[in-house]
Amino acid sequence: MKKPKVSRRSVLKAAAGVAGAGLLGGVGRAQQSQYHESPFLLGPARGNRVVIVGGGWGGVTTARTLKKINPKIDVVLIEAKEIFMSCPLSNLYLAGLKDLHFLTFDYANLVKEGVHFVNERALEVDRDRKRVYTTGGTVAYDYLVLSPGIEYVYDEVPGFEPFRAHMPVGFRPFEHVALRRNIEQFKGGDFILSVPKGPYRCPPGPYERAAMIAWYFKEHKIPGKVILLAPSSKPPKAKGFLAAYDDLYADYIEYYPNTETLGVDYEKKIVQTSLGEFDFDYANIIPPMRAGEIVRKAGVGDRWVDVELPWHQTKVDPDVYVLGDADSAGGPKSGKLAFEEGRYRVAVHIAARIAGQEAELRTPDVRNICYSFVDDEEAIWIAARYNLDEANKRRKALESKLDVQRSVKNGERAYDWAAEHWGYMFGG
């Protein structure tokens, strides 16, 4: 049916040598885990041990900051992937402007600083016994930080699950490799890009992706169009994105706001939406999201996790913290916000508790900034400061600024911003 018309494989696998289940469930004494007999991966901690699950923006920043505050703290980082890949700036990779090396880092410098890197997948948490069970064995903790990022809720897009291998999403690390290959193999036609209902990781991300894929089509003279389907009435940074779509990609992007994706028939190459059916030659459907599975395994949350701001302790267990995209405290789900709250909130609070002190806010608010490229050199941005809404215990936006006039200077600032943050996380 015709669419409606509208205008470093080598990394140190270094770790191995060197409170009740609650109402939400979790693994407790009454429900003993199948993993409870698995061997311990590490010897006894030298002092208090902080175990961090998730080696992304929030987890890495928390680990490194704890070691900066107090090198004697026993810090363990559990991460299933051998290397880190940044999702911020990854749309440059999808457009062929950067290679994967630009976005990836190993965990070697954290290991050099004394962080135990456990290259395993976390399977369950026993909050009674204060243990994390992994694919390689058991790790005991005194304090636990869960920074698992997101997972996709495929079944909220009927028809997606059986064919998800053919339609990589690209909102989690390394899925971009398959998606870029599919973009490079695209010969022409309708390329559907479907935005989910919020909240989801990186709200401007799909709109930046639309611009960068359109740039790729235009640059390589591919006779295709990006059909951008979005449930909201307008995108973040609306003036900047819409101006780029009109000025740069009038022949390459068709944007359909207020259009919810209801399902997909991969074999018939049809996406069902609230506006009708759209034919596609390729579809990059971004499904709804929720917190990574380990928060449900730990019994501290369901779709998202309620946390006590400003320090991010979970409401069911003060020794378990949840950081980054997984919380439900308001504000955008972004790498920058996870970085800020890992550095200035979670690490500070845990270090103070270990020292027997009251934690003090080093900065009264946390900042978020998001750069979005709209072509090979030019970018736009939005920034905001967040403090605590005492009445609702959620993030409160104090002010926001934006520059929706695309410019090369903004693109250069985006690279500088990334280098600064990656340098803190992974630098020597």
From TrEMBL:
Ranges that cross the membrane: none
Pfam families, per database record: FCSD-flav_bind, FCSD_central, Pyr_redox_2
Signal peptide: 1-21
Domain Sulfide dehydrogenase [flavocytochrome c] flavoprotein chain central: from-to ranges: 178-287
MF terms in GO: flavin adenine dinucleotide binding; oxidoreductase activity
InterPro entries: FAD/NAD-bd_sf (IPR036188), FAD/NAD-binding_dom (IPR023753), FAD/NAD-linked_Rdtase_dimer_sf (IPR016156), FCSD_central (IPR049386), FlavoCytC_S_DH_flav-bd (IPR015323), FlavoCytC_S_DH_flav-bd_sf (IPR037092), SQRD (IPR052541), TAT_signal (IPR006311)
UniProt protein name: Sulfide dehydrogenase
Lineage of the species this protein comes from: Bacteria, Thermotogati, Deinococcota, Deinococci, Thermales
